[in-house]
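Late entry, written up from scratch paper. The run itself happened at the end of the previous shift, but nothing got recorded in the book at the time, so transcribing now.
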Amino acid sequence: MAVKPISIRQMEKQTVDVYEAVVIMTQRAKQIAQNRVTQKLINEMEDYESDTIDLMAEEEDQAYEEQEKSTTVAISEFMEGDLSWRDISEDAPIEF
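Output as recorded:
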């Protein structure tokens, strides 16, 4: 699925600052991609431990083609209002 043009007015329904919206969608896309890589590594380790490495390359190619791009998923989540975020200002103390 290709990324479609997004109306600025629709984006402003979620947040007034367009730059903030872009940062939020970018961070979510990175998070989705990171989760996919992590899951892939976990699956490879499980296959390696169970000695079933035979046709792993063919299965990976097929599974990868079926997934939507992380950017597309992040944009649709943002536009549908499925994401939540909070504003961390520079004045707020950082808690550890």
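The CA atoms of residues 62 and 72 lie 19 Å apart.
(Scratch paper discarded after transcription.)
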